[in-house]
Design goal:
Helices cover 41% and strands 20% of the residues. The protein has helices spanning 6-9, 24-34, 53-61, 89-99, 120-143; strands at 17-19, 38-43, 46-52, 77-78, 103-107, 113-118. The protein is elongated. The two termini are 29 Å apart.
Length: 144
Amino acid sequence: MPTRPIHAVMRPEHLVVADAKQSVRDVVHLMAKHDANAVMITEHGILTGIFTEHDATFSVLAADVDADATPVAEVMTHNPMTIAPDHPFVHALHMMYEGGFRHVPVVDQDRRPIGLVAATDALNLDAREFGADLERREEITVIL
C-alpha cells in the first residue's frame, strides 16, 4: 500500500485551489462547499501556500482576524513542502510525520498543483484493501 505512487493515491475531490488574494471567508466557504480540510493557494497558477482547517482555527479565529478583510495569503502556510506524483506514498507519509502536518500538495515540475494527499488517505487505502480481502475470503468460502 505505501509503496504505491502518489498519483495512484490522489483523489480528485482533494484538488481545491484558491487565489492568494481571496478573503479568508471566501476560502473557508470554498472548503465547506467541497468538504475539504485544506485548500492549495496559488498566485498565477503557481503554488505559494496551503490553507488548512488548522490555519482557520488558530491563525484566524483564535487570533481574532477579520475573515472578510484579510486575504488568505496573510494567514496561510507559506511555501509548503510538496511532492511529485511519481514518488511513493510512503514518502509523503514520512514527510507528514517528520513535519507534523497532515496534507502534502502534489505539484508538477512547474509547481502547479495537481492534487493533494492527506494522512487519512493511508486509512482509506487500508480500508479498501481490508474490504477486498474480505470479499476474497467470502469467495473462497463459497467455492469450498
